[in-house]
Specification:
By secondary structure, this protein is an alpha/beta fold. The chain has helices spanning 48-55, 165-168, 172-184, 201-212, 226-230, 245-249, 266-271, 294-299, 314-323, 340-348, and strands spanning 6-12, 21-28, 36-46, 95-103, 115-118, 121-123, 134-136, 148-152, 156-158, 192-195, 216-220, 236-238, 254-259, 273-281, 303-306, 331-336, 355-359. The chain has 2 domains: 6-170 and 329-359, Alpha-Beta Complex (Quinone Oxidoreductase, Chain A, domain 1), CATH 3.90.180.10; 177-306, NAD(P)-binding Rossmann-like Domain (Rossmann fold). Strands 3, 4, 5, 8, 9, 16 and 17 form a 7-stranded mixed beta sheet that branches.
Length: 360
């Protein structure tokens, strides 16, 4: 096929508010380098990483909750997930579902025509498990908020599914983040997992993937979203911030807290963990600064794990779960690419339960 020279793309021009995302109708269409593939984007998911990178929230100079708006002081040295500067202009978007339409040198041409989803983690081909040699799609290189994108051939995973492109674009970031958290916390069928923020993309994925492991799952979400969250299969659902969480839990014994919320309620979550319990975290949308009583930490024999860079097998495993129907998409809304600003505004305001995607 003849590939276009230009394409429509939503380009982030710098750190700041939503106006930093600018639509270009004639952005240069990328070409796959050696070891890469060119994907025609069918849909691309929207995640906290996109919002936080644009706003510069990852910088340690920022101590507020995620707002999606501009911050007065964003450190120049650490404004991204990896604690390093980002190059602008940048096309963001890590969760692509699409079709391979061209390949670079060294990639089997038989891959042209494959339907794929992307693994957001960009790994060194000679050291795939070295977390210090990773980048992120839509951060260290251009991503999927465009009609076409390139990525490493190894990061484009073939998938066979009757789900739509929009539905498949909900999985990569949210579900891999959730599976990474559960893997770090070594969750099994013997656990009872508490999931704050269960109405969001990662929270909903945590519910499904913890249930897949056989664990008992207790979800927390605003009461207006309980009906949607219950469709994901938790054993119990509680209000977002119960005044007396221990009493509300009754006889439930929480062995794992899988948290992406943080904020002022954080000490309450830690206090309900059983002796020997585990806390795993991959976000802090309600605020990164929390208060910890170290006596609770060591006297209760707790284990804390942070989870960002997933292991290489997580995404192939997720593809298998999807193809086997073991997990389902939680697609809340789909917006056209030209309305990416509106999509992010809705995402930030938590107007929807589940994941939001954009389509070219």
């Amino acid at each position: 096929m003849t590939l276009p020279k230009t394409m429509r793309a939503m380009v982030t021009m710098g750190h700041g508010d939503l106006d930093q995302m600018v639509l270009h109708e004639d952005w240069p269409c990328p070409e796959p380098a050696a070891g890469e593939v060119l994907i025609r984007v069918g849909a691309c998911g929207l995640n906290n990483t996109d919002v936080n990178t644009r706003s510069g929230w990852y910088s340690k100079t920022v101590t507020d909750a995620t707002t999606g708006g501009a911050f007065e002081d964003v450190g120049e040295d650490d404004p991204t997930w990896g604690g390093a500067p980002i190059t602008f202009p940048r096309i963001q978007g890590a969760d692509v579902c699409g079709e391979i339409v061209a390949v670079g040198e060294g990639v089997n041409a038989a891959r042209i025509g494959e339907r794929v989803i992307t693994d957001g983690w960009l790994r060194d081909v000679d050291a795939s498990t070295d977390m210090n040699k990773t980048g992120y799609f839509g951060s260290e290189r251009d991503g999927g908020f465009a009609e076409y994108t390139t990525t490493l051939a190894a990061s484009a995973l073939a998938i066979t599914s009757e789900l739509s492109d929009a539905e498949l674009a909900t999985f990569s970031c949210s579900y891999s983040t959730a599976e990474g958290m559960l893997t770090r916390a070594q969750v099994t069928s013997a656990d009872t997992v508490l999931v704050p923020g269960a109405s969001g993309g990662v929270g909903g994925a945590l519910v499904q993937l913890a249930k897949r492991r056989g664990a008992r799952v207790i979800a927390m979400a605003s009461e207006a979203k309980h009906t949607e969250v219950l469709q994901l299969g938790p054993d119990m659902i509680l209000p977002r911030a119960s005044e007396n969480l221990r009493a509300t839990l009754g006889d439930e014994k929480i062995t794992v807290v899988a948290d992406i919320v943080g904020g002022p309620y954080w000490p309450t979550l830690i206090d309900v963990l059983e002796r020997g319990g585990r806390y795993t975290c991959s976000g802090a949308i309600a605020g990164p600064m929390v208060e910890l009583d170290l006596r609770t930490f060591y006297l209760r024999d707790l284990t804390f794990t942070g989870s960002t860079v997933i292991t290489p097998e997580v995404m192939p495993n997720l593809v298998r779960y999807i193809e086997n129907g073991e997990i389902k998409p939680a697609l809340a809304a789909s917006y056209p690419l030209v309305q990416l600003r509106e999509a992010q505004a809705a995402f930030i305001a938590k107007e929807h339960t589940g994941n939001i995607v954009v389509t070219p």
